[in-house]
Structures are given as C-alpha cells and as structure tokens.
Design goal:
Elements lengths: L6 E5 L4 H12 L3 E6 L6 H7 L6 E5 L5 H13 L7 E4 L11 H5 L7 H28 L5 E6 L14 H5 L8 H21 L4 E8 L10 H8 L14 H8 L10 E4 L7
Parallel strand pairs: 1-2, 1-4, 2-3, 4-5, 5-6, 6-7
Helix pairs in contact: 1-9, 3-5, 5-7
GO molecular function, one term: oxidoreductase activity, acting on the CH-OH group of donors, NAD or NADP as acceptor
Family: Belongs to the short-chain dehydrogenases/reductases (SDR) family.
Protein name: Short-chain dehydrogenase
Length: 272
C-alpha cells in the first residue's frame, strides 16, 4: 500500500499511538504533518528522523483553538508541503494534568466540570476544528480523493468495566474510569458517520478505528495489565504497533469502497 505523493496530517502525533501512525505513513511514502501541543519527539520518531528527516514536520498546535488550527495549516503550506488528503484525528486527553485524582477518577458525583470540558474539547472540538479546516482546504485546492481516520476506543462502544479497577479501590484509591473519555470516544464514532455522509460526494472517505487497551510498558500498573489481559479473548493487551497496518489500509486506496465504518481491533474485548 503505497502512499508516495500523498500528504497526511496526524493530530496527537507525538503520542503513543500517534507516533506509530506517523512512522507507518512515512514508511509508506507519505509526507506527514503533526499537530501536537508537545514538541519533543518520542523514540519512535527520533529513530525514523535519522533517515527520513524531510518526511515529517511537527507543528505545535492546540487543536481546540481555531486560530492555532488555521495557523497550523498555513504552516504546512509554508513548509512547501502539499495540501493534506489524509487526516488522522488521534489527539485527546484521558486525564488532565494538574488536577487531583479525585477530581478526575473518583466517583461520578465528584467529577469536575473543568475536567469534563477539557476532555470533551480535546477529542470532539479538536477533531471538529481540524476536520473543518481539512475540508475547506481540500475543496479549495481541487482535491478529489481523501481519507479521514478518527481514533475512537473500545470505551466508545461499551462502558468501561469498572471491576477491572477494583484492585485499586481495595488498596484505598476511590478510582473509577472517568465518564468524559467514554462520551468523547463514542462521539468520535457518531462524528465519523455524519462526516462520511457529508464527505462522500466530495470523495472524502471517513472511518473510525477502535483500538483496545495498549500496553505502554512501565507507564502502566502491572496489576491493571493483569486485570485487562484476563478479560480479552487473546489474553494480552495490544502492542503500540498492532494497529499500524489497519491505519495504512484505511489511509490508502485499499479501502476505497469503505466509509462510515467502524473498524474494531481490540483482542476480542467487545465481542464478549
């Protein structure tokens, strides 16, 4: 699946999965722009930077800010990159830095409005603003074929299994998987369906990818990994690169008759 001559935009491209998607697109021949509030490359991108130094550019953009989104697209043009015809909406918060665990992961009755707004905006408002600008520039530049991939989650299809976090409550942490993340990821699937119907006549396909839990190594509590893995049919969490081929499929012409769909890759989590 060759993407030579194509330009892609990946929001959240510095993150665990986003950086994998950037790498995948670059190795398939695409030029890639990254929108992220972070500016430090993870090891996934640092390695590829050594021999693909001109294949991707990072733009520091807060995707919940209209002017910054427009400025990011202007930056793509100013770097001599073509108008993106591939967009991966991968940005979004799970929890908010600087807030207490009780505010974010405590009982629903204590969940803060500030956290709700931050999480919902980072997923849904951000995807809306970036997609809107993508459509505007796609049309104004006379493009005929495009692909948008919205990254959802198993928790956008089913409720979190709060029993998987019982071990934390037993050790004194009043922890629950937060509500806003589930709502945001479910919203990404609804957004996908609406955008697919609107984009069809323009030649823009829009699909959602639903990944399962991904093992981030030392960043994850070993007890959580154990609880998660025994709930999946394949008996393990995903590796960060388990979704790369699916992203390449959705971005390329191999999925040319696929739009409005939700592709679930979760080790069987939602099939039970």
């Amino acid at each position: 699946m060759d993407l030579t001559g194509r330009t892609a935009l990946v929001t959240g491209g510095v993150g665990l999965l986003g950086s994998q998607f950037v790498k995948t697109l670059v190795l398939a021949g695409a030029k890639v722009a990254i929108f992220d509030v972070r500016t430090a490359f993870p090891s996934t991108l640092s390695e590829i930077r050594k021999y693909e130094s001109s294949s991707f550019e990072l733009f520091q953009v807060d995707i919940t800010n209209t002017e910054q989104v427009k400025g990011g697209f202007e930056g793509i043009s100013s770097m001599g990159m073509e108008t993106p015809t591939i967009l991966i909406n991968c940005a979004g918060l799970d929890t908010v830095i600087g807030q207490t665990s009780l505010e974010q992961c405590g009982p629903f009755e204590d969940y803060s409005e500030e956290t709700w707004d931050s999480v919902i905006d980072s997923h849904l408002k951000g995807a809306f603003l970036v997609s809107r600008e993508f459509f505007l520039r796609f049309k104004s530049n006379g493009q005929k074929s495009g692909s948008i991939i919205n990254i959802s989650s198993t928790y956008g299809l089913v409720s979190p299994d709060q029993s998987a976090y019982e071990y934390r409550r037993q050790r004194g942490e009043n922890f629950y998987k937060p509500v806003a993340y589930t709502v945001a990821k479910a919203g990404m699937i609804g957004f996908t369906k609406w955008l697919a119907e609107y984009g069809g006549p323009l030649g823009i396909r829009v699909n959602a990818l639903v990944p399962g839990g991904t093992n981030a190594g030392q960043r994850l509590d070993p007890e959580f990994v154990e609880e998660y893995e025994k709930r999946t049919m394949l008996g393990r969490m995903a590796s960060p690169d388990d979704y790369n081929e699916a992203v390449l499929f959705l971005a390329s012409d191999a999925s040319r008759y696929m739009t409005g769909a939700t592709l679930v890759i979760d080790g069987g989590w939602t099939a039970k």
